[in-house]
Design goal:
10% strand, 4-stranded parallel β-sheet, single chain
Length: 154
């Protein structure tokens, strides 16, 4: 709770217009909508979860139509999957060169970013590291890199 309060104070003091993000997961194409843990992390990071903002619920397919309707400022892609399948450059390039996505702010501004899976699917007390990473992607480095210490709940 202390870490979440600290994150909120830093995000609030950044006094910037809230950015929107959209998680694009190859592991689970139905994850990331309203009601997901990712949605909660977005809230704490001070960013809008773009699909949730347009009413997409967790469990609904996150297809290209949703991407266009949600129009996020940032696409967040899973890095671990791409490294394992040797497609890091190719996957990001798919977004940047897709004519259907060309008018989205995320694509126009090259805001197609990778995050490690451990940050995207951190459904425990250590999600504070994920929340900081998401906030840093959207708002610049408002949190300094620090050693990530496993937080014990006991």
């Amino acid at each position: 709770q202390t870490q979440l309060e600290y994150i909120k104070s830093k995000v609030d003091s950044a006094s910037v217009k809230p950015k929107s993000v959209m998680l694009v997961s190859k592991m689970n194409h139905n994850y990331g909508g309203k009601g997901s843990f990712f949605d909660d992390m977005c809230h704490f990071a001070g960013v809008k979860n773009a699909p949730a903002e347009i009413g997409v619920l967790n469990g609904q397919l996150m297809d290209k139509e949703i991407m266009l309707r949600a129009a996020p400022d940032y696409f967040l892609l899973s890095l671990s999957w791409e490294l394992k399948h040797d497609n890091k450059d190719g996957y990001k390039k798919e977004f940047l060169e897709d004519p259907a996505l060309a008018n989205l702010e995320a694509v126009k501004n090259n805001h197609v970013c990778y995050l490690k899976d451990k940050y995207l699917y951190a459904s425990n007390q250590n999600c504070v590291w994920a929340i900081k990473k998401i906030a840093n992607l959207a708002y610049g480095n408002i949190f300094t890199d620090e050693e990530e210490v496993f937080l014990k709940g006991y």
